[in-house]
Specification:
Layout lengths: L9 E4 L8 E7 L3 H7 L12 E7 L2 E11 L10 E7 L2 H13 L3 E2 L4 H8 L5 H12 L3 H11 L2 H25 L9 H19 L2 H9 L1 E7 L5 H9 L17 E7 L2 E7 L11 H16 L2 E7 L6 H10 L4 E6 L12 E2 L8 H12 L2 H4 L7 H22 L4 H19 L5 H8 L7
Helix pairs in contact: 4-5, 6-7, 6-15, 7-14, 14-15
Amino acid sequence: MNINDEFDTISAIATPLGTGGVGIIRISGNDAFKIALNMFSAKSLEAGKISHGWVVENGHKIDEVVVLPFKNPNSYTGEDVVEFQCHGGPKVVKKILDLTIQNGARLAQRGEFTKRAFLNKKLDLSQAEAVLDLIHAKTSNFAQKSANNLSGALTREISSIKSSLFSLYSRIIAAVDFPEDVVEPEYSYLKEEIEKYITQINKILKNADASNIMRQGIKIAIAGCPNAGKSSLFNALLNLERAIVTEIPGTTRDIIQESIDIDGIPATLIDTAGIRDDAEVDKVEAIGIEYTKNCVENADLILFLFDWSKGFDENDALIYEMIENKPHIKIASKADLAEVPNPEALNISSKTGYNIDELKQKIKEAVVDKDAMETEFVTNQRQQECLFRAKNALSNALIAVNNGEIQDLISIDIKSALLALDEVTGEVITDEILENIFEHFCIGK
């Protein structure tokens, strides 16, 4: 992006394209009010006061609109902002956008509104990334944690570490620069403090896997012999009749997948063709079985199902051999028809709902640490890499302390840790990283 582009007035559609009740076109920049008035029937706009009128072009009315003007710095971007709320027909929305461009605005790039909010210090970088997480949240749990990040939960945690660490760094530097006036901190004190900061960073990183799972989701494949109850379990977990269920072996001949929220964990649930090897398998079912094997290979978790009302036979054992070294849950299905429970598996009944909630809990326990799910905030991969670098720098400083190295050298590692923490919230950031973050946003946000 050209440096001058940072000061252009930008415009974009802020609502999804398509037919809807309302469409929003957002303008941000020094000329936002001027551009808006050039295409609005009202003579003036007052910041903080909603206006009603018509978008006009050469005296012709285009659409009846509501206009929301915001004066800098009291806006999302920290600049002058005007939003047109029009009827949500795609032709109308696009026409109004075109008029903003004709009157002097430039089409915004991906994430440029939020990028300007960051550059104008309305948000720090972790809060800006929380906006993206909130938009793309797959579960209400992750949406809540993203909202916590947006409100500054992660920023407060990082700032607390940085503030204390900077005080320690300042003490060391003061003693190095003014040895006659300032006494060096005791090495025992340095050891205690640095260990404390490493513990605090580890506490944040403890939720890294949970954060990634909540953001990206997991793939769960249901595998087993024909008529083991896979499709019935698939429907029971979804709480709808999605897959066809019959007593005929081989009913499911292709993979079926649906998205599901398992207590805050987004998952793709995959119903697969029953695995069998006999003369009755036709070409189509054989292809479905190959698909099943691929799904099993690539799944994050496998629900291995066997019909306990008929016992655990050789075919069940052969399939179990395929998956026993992969993350899995062993499930004895049709427990309502079995004489006794299976002591080595989770007994369920998709028909009655017996232990379905227990299965969901076991799925959650299998993929993520319970304590990590209880965290107030989430982290993304970029933030985690910064935290790991900060931790490694502090670990190096701790080694130097234990070895009795001069404190001038120890301060170098502490400063490296501070710089890595600054990257989390954006006090220190490169243009390349900044562009990479905001290119994942949609245009209009």
